[in-house]
Amino acid sequence: MVEGDQERKQRAEAIRNKLALLPEKPGCYLMKNKEGTIIYVGKAKVLRNRVRSYFTGSHSAKTQALVVEIVDFEYIVTASNVEALILECNLIKKYHPRYNVLLKDDKSFPYIKITNEKHPRLEVTRRVYKDKGKYFGPYPNAFAAQQTKKLLDRLYPLRKCKTLPDRVCLYYHLGQCVAPCEYEVASEEYERMVQEISRFLNGGHDEIKQDLTRKMHEAAEELNFERAKELRDHIVHIDAVMEKQKITTLDAVDRDVFGYAVDKGWMCVQILYMRQGKLIERHTSTFPYYGDEYEDFISFITQYYSDNPALPKEVFLPAEPAAGEEEGDAAAEAQLPAAEEDGAAAGSLKTDVKEALESWLKVKIHIPRRGLKKNMVDMACDNGRVALEEKFRLIERDEQRTIKAVENLGNGLARASFTASRRSTTRIFKARTLYPRWSSLPTASRTARNTANIKFARCKAPTIMKRCAKSCAAGTSVCSRRTCRCPIWS
Fold first, then answer.
1. Which CATH number goes with the domain that contains 10?
2. Under a CB-based contact definition with an 8 Å cutoff, are residues 299 and 329 in contact?
3. In a 3-state reduction of DSSP, which class is residue 113?
4. Is the pLDDT of residue 489 over 50?
5. pLDDT, position 428
6. Which of 264, 278, 306, 434 has a Cα at 20 to 30 A from 199?
7. Where is the domain boundary, 392, 408, 423?
8. How far is it, in rounded angstroms, from Cα 308 to Cα 101?
9. Distance between CA atoms of 293 and 282, rounded to whole angstroms?
10. Confidence band (pLDDT; 50, 70, 90) for 214?
11. Could you read off the pLDDT of 241-260 as tens digits, one per residue?
12. Domain that holds residue 485
């Protein structure tokens, strides 16, 4: 015990010495346990204030569990808060710390991709790479993506084969391929088709539909009815594919709407995917968190977009919780003056999150305060709360079912044991008390008992009756023929 106390005092003294040397610069810090394993990675605009906050003031139960395991820490200074944000994401993906939010790729959505090749082609994929290809999506399911691709194949005859064959295929005869395997195709033609496909997938299908309608009327005036019918079919397919999604906003901007909720040490992040102004899908991630809820939420966003080049035009985020700031300020005032500086630094860091994400992702970040956009963020947060409540209800329901099943099993075993012991006692009582062994009785009594047994047996066959009489006369406790009604069996 004395050696353990001395060791803890030495570790505390070492941490205090390192805290005094922390710089007032942005960067990342890495918390380690007694084995030297990195258990938490965080970022800070001011390293000195942020790291000190872990060892001063009061914390929640889950944060306290993290602090108890911290034996040592390291830090890396960066030039800006943006670099700290990117570095934190990379360090989390490298070390997978126990107490950090770890993004799991539990679900992937389909995208439509225009490959970056000499002869580009369209394909549906669930993996997004930084290969200079153009990605459009995500789509709610593979069927919707395949139907859209099938429509584009009818409108724009890009190649379909992964490797160019030796001769033209059936798609060329159907008018759905320009056959680069046999004919020379100008790069300008490819560029025109790629631009029109991009315009279509970015919400310009109404313009494409108007062009097709104009061409259909021109073909009809020229009495080219087969071409007019083909164009009419294209228009019908566009309507069939695009009318299945419900428009939720007046504009046609691609957005990702984030919301989150926390309860009992768990966080649920909801992502609402809006493409071309239409809400097409949502994604849910539930995980335990140990640090500050808003910082862990931002950490989730950085990991989510780190390997996803298919970025939307806008991202909506919820504002930092005001209640959490008030609680943090009250705790800081109750502790040391340094804790007040820590709270101010944390608030300043949250204020710079918007600028840091915009600088890194090169997309517009909005933290709406009112109106329709705020309602969309609130809807995502409400979905997160509902998902958490459902999770806890399911856990409680499973526990109740388990407890009830154990109680029923115990009661059943007790009843079975009691019934078995009662039957055994009853049989022993009948055999030994009511019907004692005949050898212990006088001869006259045994003869009377045998006569009574023969009269009571009611056996139809005389042989069976004789066997019963012989068995009972011999004084056996079990009749050799169970078809008779011997008193021993009654």
1. 3.40.1440.10
2. no
3. strand
4. no
5. 54
6. 306
7. 392
8. 18
9. 21
10. confident
11. 665 544 455 566 788 999 99
12. 436-489
